[in-house]
## 1
Amino acid sequence: MSLSRRPIRESRSSHSDRVVRSTATRNAPDDAATRWESSQWGDNQYKTEPVECAGRVPWISLHDAVSRASRKDGKAIGAWANRGIVIRADGLGGVLYYAESKDGGKTWPEFAVKSDIPNPGSKATLYPLGGDTVALLHNPKPKGRHPLALWISFDGMKSWPYQRVLVEHSSDGPGRTLNYPDGFVSKDRQWLHFAYDDNRHRAVHYSAKLPLLP
């Protein structure tokens, strides 16, 4: 599965105390580069070469990650949550794909890896919880944007032993969509606060209590 014909290039920012929000953008086939912009970083952009998966042009979601840029005193203030990106697209077999950077996002492998995480081509967001512990908000089915679930990995996304459905159905009834979850983890790492789109016409806030973390 080709992630990119050339390594992904990533810009750096002097705003080392900022957090990059999960975001996604469609990469048209003739685009020179895919761009991600953080509302907290102003004009700073994350750029990659055009990305292809299974002959398709996918959506790519960057997980929340603390900037690796150093402060003026030269002291690094953070690291990437899990060193990776998750890739979603229609026609990828109902699962997410995954790519990992070994150098903090400077370069990326040519090939993405097929995961066993079910996904219908909808947005999935990742949240660092310290060390190799990562939370995932997503629709855990190969078809249909429902339910909305919280999964947690304690080994750097190798396995997901904690799986909990947060929202079973849309307020409009079974079979309706639960879309675009995005949020943040509380400073004490006890809560995941997020919002989601309920069937394309209603924004819903949800605070999920996190389990006791190692």
## 2
Amino acid sequence: MTIYASDDATKVAENTEPDQIEPVRAEVHSPDPDGNHTPPSYPIDDEPEPADETDEPEDADGEPEDPAEPDWSAEPDWEHDHVEFHGDLLAFRVPAQSAVTSLGIGAGPGSTPNEQSFYARYFLSTHLSSQSFQRFLMRSIQPDGYPAEVTDPQGDLVNAISKPLLDRLEAEAKARKTAPKGKK
């Protein structure tokens, strides 16, 4: 029991020690003879399923496909824009100015690397088509996916899909500067 000065208590409890609780031993399962730590309540499959002679998917030539290079192409009927990014034609939507501004705030100076990565990934996932985003991620993960000089593919792609917006804003600003000024 806790006694506070505001309780007007004049007598302090005699037993201030917490009650002793008897420790409970956890049940420990030792590994099976193979060294696996499998709980005994789960059945262990002793014999794996026999594999077919070829587990590799085959393409039209009968050659096994390389899982690192799936047959991929940009969506031909994509209604928005496309950008060439290190050999891939990726489908994307030109971001609104508010999206680029929000990305700059969320992933800008003062943000942790995890926050920067989260906002850049979210920006890309909402502006790329799902197939293009998948392709970008697969190539980013592969050891030889992008050339060695590409050190920040995520940032490079954000810049590439933001470029049409930035070009348009720059052209509008230039047009305002060169437009004849009206008389007051």
